[in-house]
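Page 42, continued from yesterday. The earlier attempt failed because a stray header line got pasted into the input along with the sequence. Redoing it now with the clean sequence only.
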Amino acid sequence: MPQWNNTSQAENISRAIAKGRK
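This time it went through. Structure tokens are written below.
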């Protein structure tokens, strides 16, 4: 698993959580 993939997933999850909280 590439590192950039992990970062991309973390960013996506963070955005999803922020959207859900909003």
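Notes: Helices lie at 3-21.
Reminder to self: strip header lines before submitting.
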